[in-house]
């Protein structure tokens, strides 16, 4: 049974991109945010992104209109009741996710419905344990910006049923046209286990005064061919999210390289969260 009705929880950077990807793939999507106002701003972000894609000739005006028809937004979690798949993309805060999994696990009507998290680092097994349907819970980790990045990490936990994994692989490949890799349920999975210590090292380097932010970034763009430097990428991801991922990874492995440096803590405390707040290592107009 293929997946046609999807729910997304959280319409921030990732959730709004995930909604766009699903709607462009022809799936019906309900997006749930914390308030009516947050739901409306998520919808505005999705519309703006789809309009940009249409302006660049990537989708036709008809496809743009059809994609928008497939999206509804709400602040009511109960609207997820008829979904075949829910992708939770709320903030990277364990208590928030545990609460959502506890509630949504009981809201879903279809006993075959799958409940997933886009978490970067929180153990999937814990989310399954509170959901009342642990065999139908796993991680599905999209990359930022979701409409552009091809990769999706699929993370079954110790309690995920093999059929859940099979259905999610089909959804990612045949449904969305993305490329999956499978990772075990360890904080950071594959990509963040490699990426996050690199980003935190760049922040430490900047904090220690090795070079300017621009020169650290130019070093990695021009010297290693990366599409963007580590500090600009940190701003794109969100400094609060990187900090939360570093903390989860440090909690799990006690590896000093995963521990957030003081400058990152101070920037998050100051509300300098990167592109999404208008200022991080760089200002954004
Ligand atoms: N939404 C939709 N499309 C977007 C977009 C967005 N937010 N940002 C860029 N694009 C599209 C553009 O429309 C453009 O498409 P076309 O070429 O088809 O017209 C294409 O992406 C390139 O965009 P730009 O020309 O504006 O800019 P660019 O060439 O500098 O690329 C980038 C921007 C795609 C972000 C590129 O710099 C890049 O790949 N950066 C690295 C991103 C990365 O590493 N992401 C992973 C982060 S880690 C993560 O996600 C996991 C985690 O848990 C933290
Ligand atoms: P974000 O801060 O941009 O957005 C989070 C959204 O979740 C906010 O709009 C917030 O209002 C909403 N939210 C919080 N609690 C909620 C609740 N109880 N119900 C509904 N909505 C709620 O964060 P983001 O960058 O989109 O990250 C979301 C998730 O995706 C995190 O788990 C993060 O680790 C993961 N992730 C992030 C990136 C990235 O590059 N930023 C990449 C891959 C995965």
TrEMBL record:
Query: Under which name does UniProt file this protein?
Result: 3-hydroxybutyryl-CoA dehydrogenase
Coiled-coil region list? none
Q: Where is this site: Important for catalytic activity?
A: 141
One GO biological-process annotation of the entry reads: fatty acid beta-oxidation
Question: Which intervals hold domain 3-hydroxyacyl-CoA dehydrogenase NAD binding?
Answer: 6-185
Superkingdom of origin: Bacteria
Q: In which pathway does it act?
A: Lipid metabolism; butanoate metabolism
Query: Which UniProt keywords are present, listed alphabetically?
Result: Oxidoreductase
Indicate yes or no for the key word Oxidoreductase: yes
> Which family would the database say this protein is a member of?
Belongs to the 3-hydroxyacyl-CoA dehydrogenase family.
Entry's EC annotation: 1.1.1.157
The opening ranks of the lineage are: Bacteria, Bacillati, Actinomycetota, Actinomycetes, Propionibacteriales
InterPro entries assigned: 3-OHacyl-CoA_DH, 3-OHacyl-CoA_DH_NAD-bd, 3HC_DH_C, 6-PGluconate_DH-like_C_sf, 6PGD_dom2, NAD(P)-bd_dom_sf
Q: Name one Pfam family in it.
A: 3HCDH_N
**What terms describe the molecular function in GO for this protein?**
3-hydroxybutyryl-CoA dehydrogenase activity; NAD+ binding
Domain (3-hydroxyacyl-CoA dehydrogenase C-terminal) ranges: 188-284
**Record's keyword annotation contains Oxidoreductase:** yes
Catalytic EC class = oxidoreductase
């Amino acid at each position: 049974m293929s997946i046609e009705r999807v729910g997304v929880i959280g319409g921030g950077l990732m959730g709004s991109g995930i909604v766009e990807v699903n709607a462009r793939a022809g799936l019906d999507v309900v997006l749930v945010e914390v308030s009516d106002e947050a739901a409306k701003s998520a919808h505005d972000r999705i519309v703006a992104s789809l309009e940009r894609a249409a302006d660049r000739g990537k989708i036709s005006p008809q496809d743009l209109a059809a994609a928008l028809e497939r999206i509804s937004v709400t602040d009511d979690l109960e609207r997820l009741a008829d979904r075949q798949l829910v992708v939770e993309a709320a903030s990277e805060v364990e208590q928030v996710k545990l609460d959502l999994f506890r509630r949504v696990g009981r809201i879903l009507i279809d006993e075959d419905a799958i409940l997933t998290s886009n978490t970067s680092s929180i153990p999937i097994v814990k989310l399954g344990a509170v959901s009342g349907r642990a065999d139908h819970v796993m991680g599905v980790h999209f990359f930022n910006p979701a409409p552009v990045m091809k990769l999706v990490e699929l993370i079954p936990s110790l309690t995920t049923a093999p059929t859940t994994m099979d259905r999610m692989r089909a959804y990612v490949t045949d449904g969305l046209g993305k490329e999956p890799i499978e990772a075990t349920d360890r904080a950071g999975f594959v990509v963040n286990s490699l990426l996050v210590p690199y980003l935190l090292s760049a922040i430490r380097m900047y904090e220690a005064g090795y070079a300017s932010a621009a020169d650290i970034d130019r070093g990695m763009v021009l010297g290693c061919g990366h599409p963007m430097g580590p500090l600009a990428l940190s701003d794109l991801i969100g400094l609060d999210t990187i900090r939360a991922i570093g903390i989860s990874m440090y909690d799990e492995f006690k590896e000093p390289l995963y521990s957030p440096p003081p400058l990152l803590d101070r920037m998050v405390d100051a509300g300098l969260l990167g592109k999404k707040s208008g200022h991080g290592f760089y200002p954004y107009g």
